[in-house]
Amino acid sequence: MILDGATIITMDSGRRIFARGALVVRGDRIVAVGPADEILSAHPDEERVDFSGRLIIPGLIDTHVHQAQAMIRDCADDMALVQWLCERVWVLQGSYDHEDGVVSARLCIAEMLKSGTTTFLESGLAHRYGFEGVAQVVADTGIRACLSKKVMDIATYASEDNAMPLGLRETREESLLTTLDMFDRWNGAADGRIRVGFGPRTPGGVSPQLYREMVSEARARGMGITMHLAEVEADRQFLRQTYQMSPVEFARSVGLVGPDVVLVHMVWLDDQDIAILAETGTSVSHNPSSNSKLASGVCPVPRLLAAGVNVALGCDGGPSNNTYDLLAEMKLAALVHKAVSLDPTVVPAESVLEMATINGARALRWDHEIGSLEVGKKADIVVVNRDRCGLSPGLNPVSALVYSATGADVDSVMVDGRWLVRHGELLTIDEEEAVAQARERARRLYAATGIDPSPRWPVL
Ligand SMILES: [Zn+2]
């Protein structure tokens, strides 16, 4: 199949853009990409699909997703992290059953696919959402994912005052050993679209011994690890008081640095922290909407990029963002650092598009197969409608994508050579049913927990 006539932003090592390009897909792979004239004459017998007026980019990679939070996106506005967690998010999530996990995952994946995300890193599934049901949704919907399972042995966040509800507490055996079991069952499943890794809770929820044990199990199997770190100032203070270390010094002390580790948020860092990240090739997932909404602060992305740290992008969760639209996230990533530094040259559009594509692939150690449109790579492709008024004239397609586009501009999405979205319609998910189920399940959870998601104004 030839995807013909679109402007193609390849994100290859030369960052080439073909103004009128074409791309040939055979099976799950890209077999040719280049100027349309050349490709059409080299492949005269291939089926041709006309994408004139469209923009083709690599599938977007969201490196921080809580699938279980899609269904409770209405639960908490205008709150800081600890109150948000302890009074709302944990209370609701502590009441989930496995069907809630499945329904929320389907809603989340529907939104991601429709807005151009083809691969995501699940930050950590708790035991009670059910790993297998969620993995089956990933398999059935056709998206690509690294699914992490929570690991913990202490039921608090950063301090003993912030205790986790009973429903979310897990022992070493439940958390660590279940992850290994799920790795054996699901890693490499769905034609290699699923990978399984570790998503340990933050320091305070995991003993140093368990972190070390988990790291050695991960390294023995080549599993990836992702963890929230240095999200709020209290995280930094807790590590200083408890271990006399900075966040990244602590991570290094338990083995949680390296190219197989994605550390998330990373707002409260000093120069030494940044130097360790650069030396060890540790990736950072930047989540500007979540950090803004929860008033956590701003990740020092310009300093991370200047030090050579691989920075990728993430939407985080339903109640902290409140969307899983990575195109929308790209705009804030490009804006927020300019606002706080008073320097319009920091974090340009090109850097942001790298974060959402090739840097994300590198963070997942999947850049040999995804993250750019190159011969031999997987056919994970997003088609954006650049003819819409909000993107026009769009003579600089990189600027149009980062500063003007949202997920609503996505026309079609392919993962592993298979169309999952065509002309805005999901092909593997019944959207109406997914929405109705999520609404019904969410109402039940709010009723069971006594949390009221209504607006502050009278609803008549
Ligand atoms: Zn998160």
Kindly describe this structure.
With 460 residues, the chain is an alpha/beta fold. The chain has two domains: 2-58 and 372-426, Urease, subunit C, domain 1; 60-363, TIM Barrel. It contains 18 helices and 20 strands. The strands form four sheets. Strands 1, 2, 3, 4, 5, 17, 18, 19 and 20 form a nine-stranded mixed β-sheet that branches. Helix 10 links the parallel strand 13 and strand 14 (283-286). The radius of gyration is 21 Å and the shape is globular. The mean pLDDT is 97. The structure holds zinc ion.
Entry summary:
The chain has 460 residues and is an alpha/beta fold. The chain has 18 helices and 20 strands.
Helix content bin: 25-40%
Largest sheet: 9 strands, mixed
What is the CATH T-level topology of the largest domain? Answer: TIM Barrel
Number of helices: 18
CATH architecture of the largest domain: Alpha-Beta Barrel
- Sheet-strand content, in percent, reads 15-25%
Low-confidence stretches: none
Terminus-to-terminus distance = 54 Å
Shape: globular
